[in-house]
Amino acid sequence: MSLERKRVKRSYNIKFKRQVISRVEESGIDAVIKETKVPRRTVRDWVSSQSKITNFDGSQKSKTLNGQGRKETIPFSHALVLYMTDERRDNKLVTTRTLIEYMKRHQHTWLVEYLQTKKSEDSGQKALYKLCQQFSKRHGFTSQIPVTSKLRHWNTPLNGIYNVDETSIYYEKAPKRGWTGKGQKDSGRVLGLTKHPGRMTAVITIRADGKKLPILFIVKGIPGGDIETDELNTYPLGHYYCVQENAWMDGRCWGFYASKVLPRETDGPSLVLADNFDCHVSDEGQDIMAEKA
């Protein structure tokens, strides 16, 4: 049984391409092909792009002339992002339809030309909607639906609304570089260097009227272990501390937050906003907050 060899695609950097072009001018294309083993079609392409390769001002180790990345379909993308950012800064609703209306007002010529490239009016509208949705996601916007549980509390006083967010904290990070002696006498080793930094999560809460609540620090460790039973007692007063295996805000930490942190800091019925917990707002955590908070 014969096995077909997988063809390996070769790539060449700018420095090599320039050398080949120079050799073609000196010895001719046939001699260069025989010498370098580069396919004739490839060499011809380099010769036809001689000015671009010669005038390229990037790294000679680069294998392309750059600019091969994703091309933005919307030529006024910067202005559109600024418009979306300004609208959200003023708490105005931004929808896909809003973006299309912006294009109609400010980029009407481009919009008409874009729709004319589609097979029909219906397919053009669908493509335009998809384009706006992908554009929004690519530039850091997320789609959210106002839910009934929030609308019920629209008249909640400012001292009853709490916005909670989390941020990771890394400490004891090792330096990236250090000075060592030249040669084999100094190998560059460092005794006691920790490659992996320590990590904890800070759960930060602020009230709508500007009051900042004490921080809940989630320390990496084993629940019920030495850190929780002995070490936490030595931490500075004025904040709260909880232990979790990965220093994440899991269901257990949500329970601690709902039963220990909020009751001591709130005066009555409150609304807690936790939209920014992208990864760790689980069904379990939501149930705990609804039950205990």
Structural account:
It contains twelve helices and five strands. It is flat and about 85 Å long. The chain is α/β, with parallel strands linked by helices and 293 residues long. The protein has a five-stranded mixed β-sheet with strand order 4-3-2-1-5, with helices on one face. The model has no long low-confidence stretch (mean pLDDT 80). The protein starts with 13 loop residues before the first helix and ends with a helix. It comes from Phytophthora megakarya.
How would you summarize what this structure contains?
With 293 residues, the protein is of the alpha/beta class.
Task: Note the topology.
Elements: H1 14-27, H2 29-36, H3 40-48, H4 50-55, H5 77-89, H6 96-106, H7 108-116, H8 121-138, H9 148-151, E1 161-171, E2 198-207, E3 216-220, H10 226-231, E4 240-244, H11 251-265, E5 271-273, H12 283-292
Parallel strand pairs: 1-5, 3-4
Antiparallel strand pairs: 1-2, 2-3
Protein name: DDE-1 domain-containing protein
InterPro entries: WH-like_DNA-bd_sf
Organism: Phytophthora megakarya
